[in-house]
Design a protein that fits this description.
61% of the residues lie in helices and 0% in strands. It starts with a helix and ends with a helix. Among the domains are: 134-205, no CATH class; 325-397, no CATH class. The chain is elongated, with a radius of gyration of 36 Å. The chain has 27 helices and no strands. By secondary structure, it is mainly alpha-helical. The longest helix has 16 residues, at 381-396. It has helices at residues 4-17, 22-29, 33-41, 48-58, 62-67, 82-90, 94-102, 108-114, 120-128, 137-143, 149-159, 166-172, 178-189, 198-201, 207-219, 224-227, 236-247, 255-259, 265-277, 282-288, 294-302, 311-317, 323-335, 343-346, 352-364, 371-375, 381-396.
Length: 397
């Protein structure tokens, strides 16, 4: 890995060994003193041609400049170094560089190390002479930032010629143009690429392409399981279309819960209205509950025209309701409109004041005393002790 700071420090040492100022070195290289200063501080890096000139000027190897020190005498001399590859590239010997890689006299990783200092057009010409080389996943990912679109398309094709790696596609996607990305999505639709890869592509694919996938769900050409992971990248209109398909029964309503984190408040409120109309079942609205406002939930539970409360729904939604809303149920117990035994499932969510109110109803005889048994784990210990003592005294009398 090339470190610009190490290279810069080495250039500075070599310059000082010659007793040259930055201006004198700049004049010899036909660059500005500011350029030399930036090299030496590691803020920039000499290009390939200047590296070769620096190596010749200081009588060191390009590898020494790249490594910030003289190369080890123990290195494998059967393999070309990054510096040697850069020298060949600077001299325009592109076919020779490709031949070194093909003949295994240079590693692909060495070429990748040289790539940041090489023009994309130069790298493209080298890679065009290496189309017969089978690259590894990490090699393809390493080359991606430094080659043009045509070569990158070839790399993508190679990556998916024997089954694709979704994580690799995620690494390549930021460098692919819109046309190539859309072509990859088309291959997913046609079954040529595993749909699992869509999640990696989604952040970079056009909104229009993603919306087309939503349309394909309705047509039955694309499975909802394949598109639900794309929800964070879909527009509001697309999400609303999926919701409508669930409401109309065209896709399984269970997906509403999975889409809920990405739905607008307006859309969620609309779903609540559908529940009240009976067009969406309770099980589905329970999946939506964590994403609904407290006001909307209470409107769902208490807002029926007849004033009736669906206790089954209350039990399921209790963790998401405000205590004040649940306390209203206790008042209805006292009025006799709700069976006190239904409070047992709600007890963990009732306030202490509400539980004390139930006990008052028991004392007044408006609620059966058996409810105390159900509420006992949630009754204050002192209050419970007083109740027991009072009960025992009553029996004694």
């Amino acid at each position: 890995m090339i470190d610009s700071r190490k290279t810069g420090a080495y250039i500075a040492r070599l310059r000082r060994s010659k007793d040259w100022t930055q201006l004198e070195l700049a004049e010899r290289l036909h660059v500005t003193p500011q350029a030399v200063s930036r090299w030496e501080t590691g803020d920039s890096f000499p290009d390939v041609a200047l590296l070769a000139q620096l190596a010749q000027l200081f009588k060191v190897s390009v590898d020494a400049l790249l490594n910030g020190e003289a190369p080890s005498i123990f290195r494998d001399r059967r393999k070309a170094t990054t510096g040697e590859i850069l020298t060949e590239l600077a001299e325009g010997n592109l076919e020779n560089v490709a031949k070194l890689v093909r003949d295994e006299k240079a590693d692909v990783e060495t070429l990748i190390d040289a790539a940041p200092l090489t023009r994309p057009s130069t790298m493209d010409k080298v890679m065009e002479n290496l189309t017969d080389i089978k690259l590894t996943r990490s090699q393809i990912a390493g080359l991606a930032p430094f080659v043009g679109q045509d070569v990158l398309k070839l790399l993508v094709e190679q990556a998916f010629s024997e089954g694709g790696d979704p994580s690799l596609l995620g690494e390549l996607a930021p460098f692919l143009d819109r046309e190539t990305l859309d072509q990859l999505v088309e291959r997913v639709i046609n079954g040529e690429i595993d749909p699992e890869n869509l999640t990696e592509l989604a952040p970079f694919v056009s909104r229009e392409t993603l919306e087309r996938l939503v349309d394909l769900v309705k047509e039955g050409r694309f499975e909802m399981e394949q598109i639900e992971n794309l929800a964070p990248f879909l527009g509001r209109e697309s999400l609303d279309r999926l919701v409508q398909q669930a409401v109309d029964g065209e896709i399984d309503g269970e997906y509403l819960g999975r889409l809920a984190p990405f739905l607008s408040r307006e859309t969620l409120d609309g779903l609540v209205d559908r529940v009240k109309e009976g067009s969406i079942g309770k099980v589905q609205i329970e999946d939506l509950a964590p994403f609904l406002s407290k006001d909307t939930l209470e409107r769902l539970v208490f807002g029926s025209a007849g004033g009736d409360v669906d206790l089954n729904m209350v039990r399921e939604l209790a963790p998401f309701l405000r205590r004040e809303a649940l306390d209203r149920l206790v008042d209805q117990v006292g009025e006799g409109s709700i069976d006190a035994r239904s409070l047992a499932d709600l007890a963990p969510f009732l306030s202490k004041a509400s539980i004390r109110k139930v006990l008052k109803f028991v004392a007044a005889g408006t609620v059966d005393a058996d409810v105390i048994v159900e509420l006992a784990p949630f009754i204050d210990k002192q209050v419970l002790s007083d109740l027991i003592r009072g009960s025992m005294q009553g029996k004694a009398e």
